[in-house]
Each structure stands twice: as C-alpha cells, then as structure tokens.
Amino acid sequence: MDARSVFAVRGLRCTRQRVVLYEALINMKTHPTAEELYDKVREHCPGLSLATVYNTLEVLCRAGLCRRLPTTRGSSRYDADTHPHLHAVNSETGDVVDIPDDLGQEVIQNLPQDVIKEIEARLDMSVDRISIQFIGREQARPLEKVTQEVSV
Amino acid sequence: MDARSVFAVRGLRCTRQRVVLYEALINMKTHPTAEELYDKVREHCPGLSLATVYNTLEVLCRAGLCRRLPTTRGSSRYDADTHPHLHAVNSETGDVVDIPDDLGQEVIQNLPQDVIKEIEARLDMSVDRISIQFIGREQARPLEKVTQEVSV
DNA sequence: ATTACTGCAAAGGCTTTGCACGGGT
DNA sequence: ACCCGTGCAAAGCCTTTGCAGTAAT
C-alpha cells in the first residue's frame, strides 16, 4: 500500500512533503527526531521547512500513522511502525531502535494477563497500551555479570 | 534515614531547599513536573526559585536519588522512588502514578530472562534497566471488552 | 576560609503558531 | 474554485546558564 492510498484512507491530503516524510520515516531503522528526519529528507525535497516536518508528524500521529516516543530529554522521536513492538534505548546517545520481533513477541506473550486485569481494577483505569523499553549501552558486558533492574 | 544523612552519603551539601524539595518529592504519590513541585513547596520555602528546583532535580538525578521520567510532551516528571517499580500513565492528562508493588513485582518476575539475554546478544548491548508503563485512561471499561496492545 | 548553592534574569533548545502564498482536490 | 498545507518568521514553552551574593562545610 503506497503512501497516497494510506493517506486517502485517513482522509489526509497527499502532498509531496507528506509522502517524502512518511516514506523516509517508515524506512529508517532508527527513530529519528524531527530535525534528523528533516536533514534526511532535505535533499529529496528542497525548500522543505522544519515547521512542516513538525506539522506533518503531528498530523501523522493524530491519524494513527505514527507515534511520538517518550524521551527523558532533548527532542522527541518518532516511529511510523504502529504494530506492537518493543524498543531498545541507548542511554548514552538517546538513540532508539526496535527489538527484533520474535524476541519482542516472546516478552509480550509472557505478560500475565490476570495481573494486568488486576491493575485495571485497582487503579480504576483501562489499559490501552503497555510500553516497554530496554535501556542500556552498546558493547555487551560479559553476560554472566549482567545485573538487571526493572523499573520506571 | 533523614534527608540530611541521605545527602551526606552522596556527598551533597544539605541546604534548606534541597531538603524541602527532596522530602516533598518523596511524599508525593504523583510524579510531578518541576513546576508542580515548585508550587507545592513554595509555601514552605518562600523565595525559592524555579531554577533551583530544576538544578536540584538535576543534582538528585545524578546522585541516583531521583529519576526523570520519559514523557511524550510537555514538562519532564520526576520520581524520587528509585526502587524497581512500574508506572501507570494517564494518556489524557499525562499524570503518572505507581503500580501497586505486589502487582508490579509479578509483572517483573514474569519477564523471560533468557529472552532478555538474547536481546543483549543480538543487539550487542547490555540492558541496564527495563522500563514498563501501562498507558490508559481513567474509568474502567467493562473488563471483558478490554483489548490490549503492547508496544512502543 | 573556602567552596558550592541560590536567586534572578537572560539565553537557549525544541515546538507551535500566524499569515500570505501556492498546491491539492 | 475552494480549502488546506506550506514556508517563513515570530512567539512560546521548558530548561539551562552566568553572575553576584549567601550559606554550608
């Protein structure tokens, strides 16, 4: 399904800028900031404005075609892959990449559904989404020595 | 252990502002933004500056006494509870509260360690921390109808 | 006495907005 | 032809920083 059709389904106008931005975002393995995406796309779309990048990302998010990722500092990052998957965050650089899907699914399937229901009941909330990030650094330490802390 | 001792252990100077801010942060069940904390504490500490709130939060984070929570928009939020626990995020308001500890521990203990090791191996990273948020809204829908999506 | 912290105000990132023009339907 | 999207520049949040005075060790 090409960008034009995707936009049509959501009732979005199909402009050159939107197509280029959306396709670039889908094809990037990292989840770029608005500025990184801007730099990536500039060559294919001279005259493009950073404001348009922000506006477009906002439109895509509201249409459900992309997601703004939570970060602790600096610019927001964006991900046009809306299927359930997990992220690895490099705590030194802030870079975000996907967890390979087979592994991510295993983690997801091990979540205890009964506990989640109990969380909904006790907090009187409905859980729409569970967000999971693996936070760490490049270069593995010897695996035996890894101590993990689960939090936030 | 009082704030003075906690600071002493980390080699932090014990100032009136730091004590008041740290104690207020520990005692808040929500995880406030710098400005929310500022408002909360102003009465107990007239003349306090918002810049000091930011500076203090930064110092506490670097000393491992508090954590800046990732948000998708607006101000950062801070949590002085550093023991491993999970958060519920209200997607409408941005408010963040803790998941009851017994439930959080169950979720944490169900994480498949072998899969995590495999993630480290394949991404050539060391996982320091796994961050999990339950994202949803107030007011439970009937539990039978809940469909969940795991992601980000 | 020394050094670090605070408050203020100004500067700095990141993002949004107002408006006139041009492109999409 | 109509209306929305774009580009530009300005404004706006949120956060950090420079500096002079003050407090903590």
Which features characterize this protein?
homodimer; 152 residues; alpha+beta; 3-stranded mixed sheet; two-stranded antiparallel sheet; 6 helices; DNA-binding
Unreliable stretches covering 5 or more consecutive residues of chain A: none
The secondary structure category of chain A is: alpha+beta
Q: Gyration radius of chain A, to the nearest Å?
A: 18 Å
Mean pLDDT of chain A: 93
Main sheet summary of chain A: 3 strands, mixed
If you had to describe this structure to a student in words, what would you say it looks like?
2 copies of one chain form a homodimer. Helix content of chain A is 41%, strand content 20%. Chain A is of the alpha+beta class. In chain A, the strands form 2 sheets. The first copy, chain A, has a 3-stranded mixed β-sheet. In chain A, strands 1-2 form a two-stranded antiparallel sheet. In chain A, β1 and β2 (77-79) form a beta hairpin. Chain A starts with a helix and ends with a strand. At the A-B interface, β1, β3, α5, α6 and β5 of A face β1, β3, α5, α6 and β5 of B. β5 of chain A pairs antiparallel with β5 (125-138) of chain B, so a sheet runs across the interface. Chain A binds a DNA duplex (25 and 25 nucleotides) through α2 and α4.
Helix-strand layout with pairing:
The structure is a homodimer of 152-residue chains.
Chain A: H1 3-10, H2 16-27, H3 34-42, H4 50-62, E1 67-69, E2 77-79, E3 87-90, E4 96-98, H5 101-109, H6 113-123, E5 125-138, E6 149-151
Parallel strand pairs in A: 3-5
Antiparallel strand pairs in A: 1-2, 3-4
Helix pairs in contact in A: 2-3, 2-4, 3-4
Chain A binds a DNA duplex (25 and 25 nucleotides) through helix 2 and helix 4.
